């Protein structure tokens, strides 16, 4: 399962994720289908905050290590 699909599943659907990010459901659909599950860099942390899906899972090209982008207390856990 792609990380974006995991995030969508956690919140209960693409529309719910869109609401949490204050974007249209069409935007989430574009990330999912047109962009092949790759979310824009500026949306990685908001998705993490809304779902717990880590920045590394969402964009391993930007967050190379599993703890990159995590708050300090979570990175140590």
Q: What's the topology here?
A:
Elements: H1 3-11, H2 14-21, H3 25-34, H4 41-51, H5 55-58, H6 72-76
Description:
This protein is mostly helical and 77 residues long. 61% of the residues lie in helices and 0% in strands. It has a single domain (3-76), classed as 434 Repressor (Amino-terminal Domain) (Orthogonal Bundle), CATH 1.10.260.40. The chain is globular and about 30 Å long.
Q: Ends: how far apart?
A: 24 Å
Count of individual helical segments: 6
Principal-axis shape: globular
CATH architecture heading:
Orthogonal Bundle
SSE pattern: HHHHHH
For the record, the count of structural domains works out to 1
**Stretches where pLDDT falls below 50 for ≥5 residues?**
none
| Helical content (DSSP H or I, runs of 4+) | 55-70%
Name the CATH class: Mainly Alpha
Mean pLDDT: 93
The CATH fourth-level homologous superfamily: lambda repressor-like DNA-binding domains
Biggest β-sheet: count, sense, barrel?
none
Output the CATH topology.
434 Repressor (Amino-terminal Domain)
Briefly note the structural class of the backbone.
mainly alpha
Extended strand count: 0
Radius of gyration: 12 Å
Strand percentage lies at under 5%
Organism: Escherichia coli
Protein name: Helix-turn-helix domain-containing protein
InterPro entries: Lambda_DNA-bd_dom_sf (IPR010982), YdaS_toxin-like (IPR031856)
């Amino acid at each position: 399962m792609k990380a974006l699909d995991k995030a969508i599943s956690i919140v209960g659907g693409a529309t719910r994720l869109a609401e949490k990010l204050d974007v249209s459901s069409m935007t989430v659909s574009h990330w999912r289908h047109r962009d092949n599950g790759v979310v824009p860099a500026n949306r990685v942390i908001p998705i993490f905050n809304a779902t717990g899906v880590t920045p590394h899972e969402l964009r391993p090209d930007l967050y190379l290590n599993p703890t990159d982008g995590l708050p300090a207390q979570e990175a140590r856990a």
